[in-house]
Design goal:
heterodimer; B: alpha+beta; 38% helix; 13% strand
């Protein structure tokens, strides 16, 4: 139960050399992802002394692991490297890197400043084009070396793929323990690569469906006790939380608006669940749906003007889109099965969802108009998809079979690169932070 | 990568507790030695008196049953759970029988307040199941009100799929987990 402090990393801009245009060496699209991951060399960062060298080696390993997990890169083993005398101030011997088929090279230097701060200078090279693609410098406190590594990985990812990175981020989720009939559920947080896990709540009540605020400083979630269901907003820096209020009924399925000014949620009154929004500054509550059906799981479009939500008004749970005032409701899911848990991508191009059909659960995506639907995953129980901030990767929870403990998985929106998230204990309901500042 | 710090914290707390217990013992004076016990005198009891009464007739023994008005009484004589079909919230015929008994029992014990808890099986997503469980709870509430129970005595909540009754995987277990539970929250004995 310690507050999560978001240190702001100083990013000093390009320090040396002219940045070449993006290499765009990795061709990716949503339909097929990457057939062949790009071979890349991430050299251990040099350092003036043993301590700096140690940190430099760790930084390089974290960068390589981030790039590898994305599925777009294949970091080469440092054992295969020919040039061992890299210096960030010198041009590398490109032939040494071409020989081992490294299409790109990341090298750099870790420096511990007199005040204890850590500085990393790094360059990204196009080895076959024999030119520098990036040259950047990051500075942070010494404890934040992992964040520097993630920032470097984000910069490399963006330069090589043309899409924003998602490595300097955190994931909040529900950590489960105890027997199936009386599970203990606690909010937990970790870095996107599984480092620095810790609990945010102690487990005296059930916590469900946490969702990050757009600035990454807050979580809104549902707390379920024997006689109440409330929605809270938890401040990660102060560890203080407040209730959205008492609605004379169950309150659940909260989600922030993209500008953080509102929360959409659903309230059950007398067995009828409808969608509401609350303006967090004025506390004004607006009822958005009035249908007698179940209306729940609202999620904002990135421009904040529409909501996608789940309703069984047509006889089975399906996805609908409406304007923020409740007008213009139209159904967007028309495939086979039951559709729930819609989540609008931060990029706006897709809506992720859970589809249940024929005894199996799938994570899928479709365009906001319902076109171009694709099934990404299949298992006994996949649910709770959440977007990485770049709108490229989804994290979700999976029970491989009845009684299997739920685990977090990630998948690319092409459907490729399905893999367990780096947390190997029972967990559900993930939410991905925006890129940290 | 096991999360989190509490196991170390717990160990520390346990060790600390042990130290505290030891020092508490040390700070108390020793209890006094017990007084020496006199050796048992030899003693021959008199023979037991002869009982000439006729043998007693057998008395039928049976438990008296739960205390009337208690939770146990409610569970046994009315039933505290009704079951639902998949993705449905209409009270079934077998459920009506139970709810009729619940209503009659609640009429008899008018001081008892109840909480209806709606539950779902795991074959649905979390948020939808909260809404579905809420519907089930409300169906039961509406039925009891229709049978004369005051709405002021009834609250409802949905536990969605968070509190399964049966942790098995069979359709039987799933069917059990689609239920509405009537919990007596006040006014009932044990």
């Amino acid at each position: 139960m310690r507050p999560v402090v978001y240190a702001v990393l100083a990013l000093l801009t390009v320090v040396f050399g002219a940045a070449a245009p993006a290499l765009a060496a990795v061709e990716i699209n949503v339909n097929r992802g990457v057939i062949q991951p790009l071979p890349i060399a991430v050299a251990p960062m040099t350092g003036a002394d043993a301590r700096a060298q140690g940190i430099g080696g760790d930084v390089a390993r974290v960068i390589a692991a981030d790039l590898e997990r994305s599925g777009f890169f294949k970091p080469l083993s440092p054992d295969s490297f020919i040039q061992r005398d890299l210096n960030v101030d010198d041009t590398p011997r490109f032939n040494d890197w071409k020989t081992i088929n490294a299409q790109a090279l990341v090298n750099g230097r870790a420096t511990i400043e007199p005040d204890g701060r850590l500085r990393v200078d790094f360059r990204l090279w196009d080895t076959f084009g024999e030119k520098q693609v990036l040259g950047l410098q990051f500075t942070s406190t010494g404890e934040d070396w992992r964040r520097i590594a993630h920032k470097v990985a984000d910069a490399v990812y963006k330069a090589m793929t043309g899409e924003d990175g998602y490595f300097d981020t955190r994931i909040v989720f529900v950590a489960e323990s105890g027997p199936r009939k009386s599970k203990v559920k606690r909010l937990a947080i970790m870095d996107q690569d599984g480092a620095n896990p810790s609990y945010l709540t102690e487990g005296s009540y059930l916590v469900l469906t946490p969702r990050f605020s757009p600035n990454g400083h807050q979580i809104t979630y549902m707390a379920l006790r024997a006689d109440s269901a409330r929605v809270y907003i938890l401040d990660l820096e102060t560890n203080r939380q407040e209730s959205l209020g008492n609605f004379q009924g169950m309150v659940f399925s909260p989600r922030f608006s993209p500008d953080g000014s509102k929360v959409a949620f659903s309230v059950d009154r007398n067995g009828n669940t409808d969608v509401y929004t609350m303006d967090l500054r004025s506390r004004a509550v607006t009822r958005v749906t009035t249908d007698a059906a179940i209306d729940t799981s609202p999620s904002f479009s990135p421009d904040g003007r529409q909501l996608v939500f789940n309703s069984d008004r047509g006889g089975s749970p399906q996805l609908y889109v409406m304007n923020l005032d409740g007008s213009g409701v139209h159904r967007i899911s028309f495939g086979q099965g039951r559709y729930t848990t819609p989540v609008w991508s931060p990029k706006g191009d897709f809506i992720a969802f859970t589809r249940q059909q024929g005894g199996e659960f799938h994570i899928g995506v479709m365009k906001p108009d319902g076109s171009d639907e694709r099934t990404l995953t299949t298992s006994y129980l996949d649910e709770s998809p959440a977007w990485a901030p770049n709108g490229r990767v989804l994290i979700f929870s999976r029970e491989a079979g009845h009684g299997s403990p739920p685990r977090l998985y990630t998948v690319d929106i092409s459907g490729q690169n399905l893999r367990p998230a780096p947390y190997n204990l029972p967990a559900t309901d993930p939410t991905w932070s925006p890129l940290l500042k | 990568m096991s999360p989190i710090t509490s196991s170390n914290g717990l160990k520390f707390a346990a060790a600390f507790g042990a130290v505290a217990a030891l020092s508490a013992c040390a700070s108390h004076p020793k209890p006094p030695e017990p007084a020496p016990v006199a050796s048992t005198p030899s003693y021959n009891p008199p023979p037991p008196p002869v009982d000439n009464r006729p043998p007693p007739r057998e008395v039928a023994v049976a438990p008296t049953g739960p205390i009337p008005g208690s939770t146990q009484d409610f569970v046994i004589s009315a039933g505290d759970r009704v079951y639902f079909d998949y993705d449905q919230y209409a009270v079934r015929t077998d459920g009506r029988t139970v709810l009729d008994k619940q209503a009659a029992w609640l009429q008899r014990y008018a001081q008892v307040a109840v909480r209806i808890e709606g539950n779902c099986d795991e074959r649905g997503t979390r948020e939808y199941n909260f809404a579905l469980g809420a519907r089930r709870a409300d169906s039961i509430k509406a039925y009891l009100i229709d049978r004369g129970v005051s709405p002021a005595r009834i609250t409802t909540i949905s536990y969605g799929k968070e509190r399964p009754l049966d942790d098995g995987s069979s359709e039987d277990a799933m069917a059990k987990n689609r239920n509405g539970h009537t919990a007596l929250t006040s006014g009932a004995g044990n």
